[in-house]
Design brief:
InterPro entries: C-N_Hydrolase (IPR003010), C-N_Hydrolase_sf (IPR036526), Gln-dep_NAD_synthase (IPR014445), NAD/GMP_synthase (IPR022310), NAD_synthase (IPR003694), Rossmann-like_a/b/a_fold (IPR014729). By secondary structure, the chain is of the alpha/beta class. Helix content is 35%, strand content 20%.
């Protein structure tokens, strides 16, 4: 880490400083491409905003999270080449970028300040997180020193993401004389995350009497979605600038720096509803997964139910109707209502829509299985066969036309195993994987406020997989209003079965749900990834052994 003479910034002559927050979307692993994005953004910030300093998100050179790409032998070479290209780009404005930097044989998650073609300062993140979706200690050593630099006569401190959530780094920077703190972030979205960030930043700014520029990554990366929401707080803890969530762009902030650095306030974006916030996260997650992985289009099974209807709307909003193919695959148990509603959804959204009956295929399979199944009675085997035939059709369309199959299962179903391996779970991306069923209903009503694309009876009728006559989800599960509460306590908050019962839930319901969650880990391990929107989703967040002897209880 480096620090220039005069870093305490003892002079307090009033100065203006134009800072631009580069809330941008980077591609993991494309180090040279990401460097070009940085250069282009700095030049644009110079031209459009007369920028003195452009601040980028955490690890913007590699994208976040780079995971085991950080272990590749050529990492240091590629990072060095990217840093050299930034230094040789003849940029007028300075920039703070995030990059992995090796020093003394150890790799650090660093904030690097480049000014006039030179690396003026480097700060090493002091608290690499190792919880929930984070496993930075696998890759990064922890720094220990503050970094405060005299930039244009102003004492500016650097920190990275988790450092601001922990005691120490902000306080160190303030003690070293910082009047303005830059914090680089790759903070993934979950419900309520922005409110928690703002409460934290307000306290850190007020308690340490320094302005904070918090710049966050935006975009989708596998199951994670980064929502941006970059903010600026003044030294008294007042929110001066807030950037819209999920929007990529360059956002200028003017500071008047005397004894304190005072940001000039800007109008704030409207406060989004919970449903709008989640919906935008899902749309962004789908768009980036499809586009960054080079898929031309997506295909999904449209059943006439609410999950596939919502998935279809999200896909169209993410990619455009011309890149979405909906397929209805009816069977003898498919109701006329489902056929009508599926067609209405496809027409409302303007997508290609095909109907392929699975009846002939089902009959052929049953004929082939007639001898081994002789003397048995129909059960879930025959139900699962229907789902698997649909999976085969969708995967065939995927192979032939290069389309990504979107699955449509929600978090509630995935939790209790209410899904079929190699059937409705067959696909590449599950849009609703982390969306509880009760939230599916709320999102569907929200989407209809934009334009009416989901028929009202799809939202109001009892959910059914339609794999057997008169089948309803609640025949074998508690009502979703109860189920989702139990799942929240068990999956997201780690309550034991006894603790959930103590909250007032029926013991039989609790023990049944907990058992279903536990025994279906093997299914979830084989499920496609999907957008994470809660504090604890199935995937990186929750890593339980498939084979285990843990007993239900306290």
């Amino acid at each position: 880490m480096s620090q220039q003479p005069g870093a305490t910034g003892t002079g307090h002559t009033a100065r203006k400083l134009n800072v631009v927050m580069a809330q941008m979307d980077f591609l993991v692993g494309d180090i040279s491409g990401n460097a070009r994005l940085v250069i282009d953004a700095v030049r644009k910030a110079e031209q459009e905003h007369n920028a003195d300093l452009v601040v980028f998100p955490e690890l913007c050179l590699t994208g976040y999270p780079p995971e085991d790409l950080l272990l590749r032998p050529s990492l240091d070479l590629r990072v060095a080449e990217a840093l050299a290209s930034l230094q040789q780009a003849n940029l007028t404005a300075a920039c703070v970028i995030g990059a992995p930097i090796r020093q003394g044989g150890l790799l650090y998650n660093a904030a690097v300040l480049i000014d006039q073609g030179e690396v003026r300062a480097s700060y090493f993140k002091q608290f690499p997180p190792n919880y929930q979706v984070f496993d930075e200690k696998r890759y990064f050593a922890a720094g220990s020193e503050p970094c405060v630099i005299d930039f244009r006569g102003i004492a500016v401190g650097l920190t990275v993401c988790e450092d601001i959530w922990s005691d120490g780094p902000v306080e160190q920077a303030a003690a070293a004389g910082a009047r303005l703190l830059i914090n680089l972030n790759a903070s993934p979205y979950d419900i309520g995350k922005q409110a928690r960030r703002k409460a934290l930043l307000e306290g850190k700014a007020r308690d340490n009497e320094l302005a904070i520029v918090y710049v966050n990554l935006v975009g989708g990366q596998d199951e994670l979605v980064f929502d941006g929401g970059s903010v600026v707080y003044d030294h008294s803890g007042e929110l001066a600038v807030e950037v819209p969530q999920f929007d990529e762009g360059l956002y200028p902030v003017e500071f008047i720096c005397d004894h304190h650095c005072q940001p000039v306030s800007r109008p704030r974006p409207p406060e989004p509803s919970l449903e709008e916030n989640i919906y935008k996260a899902l749309v962004l997650g789908v768009r980036d997964y499809v586009n960054k992985n080079g898929f031309r289009s997506v295909v999904l099974g449209l059943s006439g139910g609410i999950d596939s209807a919502l998935t279809l709307a999200i896909a169209v909003d993410a990619l455009g109707a011309d890149r979405v193919h909906a397929v209805m695959m009816p069977f003898r148990y498919t109701s006329s209502m489902s056929l009508e509603d599926a067609e209405a959804e496809a027409k409302a959204l303007g997508v290609r829509y095909d109907v392929f009956s699975i009846e002939p295929m089902y009959d052929a399979f049953m004929a082939a299985l007639e001898k081994p199944f002789e003397g048995t009675t129909p059960d879930t085997t025959e139900e699962n066969l229907q789902a698997r035939l649909r999976g085969v059709l969708l995967m065939s369309l995927s192979n032939k036309f290069g389309s990504l199959v979107l699955t449509t299962g929600n978090k509630s179903e995935l939790a209790v195993g209410y899904s079929t391996l190699y059937g409705d779970m067959a696909g590449g991306f599950d849009v609703l994987k982390d969306v509880p069923k009760t939230v599916v209903f709320r999102l569907s009503r929200y989407r209809n406020t934009i334009s009416p694309v989901i028929p009202e009876r799809v939202i109001t009728r009892p959910p059914s997989a339609e794999l057997a006559p008169d089948q309803k989800d609640e025949d074998s599960l508690p009502g979703y209003d109860v189920l989702d509460q139990i799942l929240n306590l068990y999956v997201e908050r780690d309550f034991s079965a006894e603790a959930i019962v103590a909250e007032g839930f029926d013991r039989k319901d609790v023990e049944r749900v907990v058992r279903l969650v536990d025994i279906n880990e093997y299914k979830r391990r084989q499920a496609p990834i999907g957008v994470r929107i809660t504090e604890r989703g199935f995937g990186k967040d929750r890593r339980y052994p498939i084979t285990n002897g843990w007993k239900i209880g306290n």
